[in-house]
Amino acid sequence: MLQVNVIREQRDKIIEGLLKRGLTAIDEKIDQVLSLDVQRKEMQRKQDDLLAESNILAKEIGNLMKSGNKDEAEKLKNRTAELKKQTAELGPSLNTIEEELQKLLYAIPNVPAEKVPSGKTAEDNITVHTFGTPQTLAEDAVPHWDLIKKYDIIDFELGIKIAGAGFPVYKGKGAKLQRALINFFLDEAEKQGYREIQPPIVVNEASGYGTGQLPDKEGQMYHATADNLYLIPTAEVPITNLYRDVMVNENDLPIKNVGYTPCFRREAGSWGAHVRGLNRLHQFDKVEIVQIRKPEESYEALDEMCLYVQSLLEKLELPYRKLLLCGGDMGVNSAITFDMEVYAAAQKRWLEVSSVSNFETYQANRLKLRYKNKEGKTQLLHTLNGSALALPRIVAAILENNQTKDGIMVPKVLVPYTRFDIIN
RNA sequence: GGAGAGGUGGGUGAGUGGCUGAAACCAACAGUUUGCUAAACUGUCGUACGGGUCAAACUGUACCGGGGGUUCGAAUCCCCCCCUCUCCGCCA
């Protein structure tokens, strides 16, 4: 959520930034915020004046009562009643304006950072880095959804039987490969100074609002209505919400947490082309890194996080490209996002396996996540997160790219974790 | 699910109708002292939205889990809701 005072001070700059998202009529929305803000101020001022008078009178009445001057006190009470009536009249409309303002602010996405290109779709993303060469496979190479059947390592039918489409069952070496990847990712993160967190995989409503999944993306999360809990779509939600309503001690910065969790996404209506096999699931595993930084350090942290994620892909020997997302392709909370996509050689497609974002103060404002700086001033912090990494598509790419006539070769770095070097 | 206790500032915690935006302690910050560190001492120290100012000083309002109510006046009394803890039950 943007801060009203920032909108007030930097109206033009904010509109210019938001235009990069390809939004229409954004200037109207911003001006609506400003005009509601003016109205709010006026009304609040009136209200404050009324209340101020009441407070003075209340004190006087108190004193008069003490000194036994009842008649005089009664006279003042009449005036108080009048004031009370007026504040009562003003109250509801003030509330309405505040609610409207709040709703409007929730609906305005974060302002893209300066270097974010404008654009509407993935077409406008910019490839800023590549690693490796997309390999050409043998004639008889097959996509991962055939390989998992051939080697009997992931079973979609069983998942359908016990849960539904998009809930695969990992079996034997398939399960071990998953576990190996999770451990590998967690160990690597720890080497980079991240603290491991095991959060709940359900969160309450307040947490959903804190990181911005609510109210806009309500339909994306599984909702346990009996208890009003949401299954997390990413570990970002619980791990970032650890710091909701927190005044961080400056000495505890920077905060670097990593967590492995299953993630749940309803992805309602998005089934169809390009979502076969492991490409898109309702439940999947992911290791997520989350940082909380001082504003002046957050872009340095973003670079660090990208390089870290890239190092994982390089260790796994997966060809990848790094994209700077255009305004229209970024999530609403993000100020800047880099996506990492690995090449799945049998599908001949790039698969997104990581998304690294700086939210600047957008989340922190909702979260009320702040610290006191050296001057003793309370300041919003910056939040960042990145997948490091999302498992299924990594698995898909490993299976496809590493297939040989004898079986699937396990990446060298993973062998100590899997304790086998081929799936056959 | 049943019974009880409780939710106060960055933290612990006092506060049962006006003198309380809130004691005390801790933390933090600034300074004094000091060979350095530590200790000691002194001072500052909640948040939001306004007014005011070049900026301050200063100043208004609201906020003691959330929402309503009683009252001239509520952290304090009443009602509803949420959450936490303890005991019992159930489960692991």
UniProtKB/TrEMBL annotation:
GO molecular function (one): ATP binding
Positions contributing to ATP binding: 265-267, 352-355
Gene3D superfamilies xrefs: Bira Bifunctional Protein, Domain 2, Serine-tRNA synthetase, tRNA binding domain
Similarity comment: Belongs to the class-II aminoacyl-tRNA synthetase family. Type-1 seryl-tRNA synthetase subfamily.
Enzyme class name: ligase
Sites where the protein binds L-serine: 234, 265, 288, 385
Pfam family, one: tRNA-synt_2b
One GO CC term on file: cytoplasm
The keyword Cytoplasm belongs to this UniProt entry's keyword annotation: yes
Known EC number: 6.1.1.11
InterPro entries (alphabetical): aa-tRNA-synt_IIb, aa-tRNA-synth_II, aa-tRNA-synth_II/BPL/LPL, Ser-tRNA-ligase_type_1, Ser-tRNA-synth_1_N, SerRS_1_N_sf, tRNA-bd_arm
Localisation per UniProt entry: Cytoplasm
Keywords assigned by UniProt, alphabetized: Aminoacyl-tRNA synthetase, ATP-binding, Cytoplasm, Ligase, Nucleotide-binding, Protein biosynthesis
Limits of the Aminoacyl-transfer RNA synthetases class-II family profile domain: 176-411
Name assigned to this protein: Serine--tRNA ligase
Keyword Flavoprotein in annotation: no
GO BP term, example: seryl-tRNA aminoacylation
Catalytic reaction annotation: tRNA(Ser) + L-serine + ATP = L-seryl-tRNA(Ser) + AMP + diphosphate + H(+); tRNA(Sec) + L-serine + ATP = L-seryl-tRNA(Sec) + AMP + diphosphate + H(+)
NCBIfam families, alphabetized: serS
Domain of life: Bacteria
Pathway: Aminoacyl-tRNA biosynthesis; selenocysteinyl-tRNA(Sec) biosynthesis; L-seryl-tRNA(Sec) from L-serine and tRNA(Sec): step 1/1
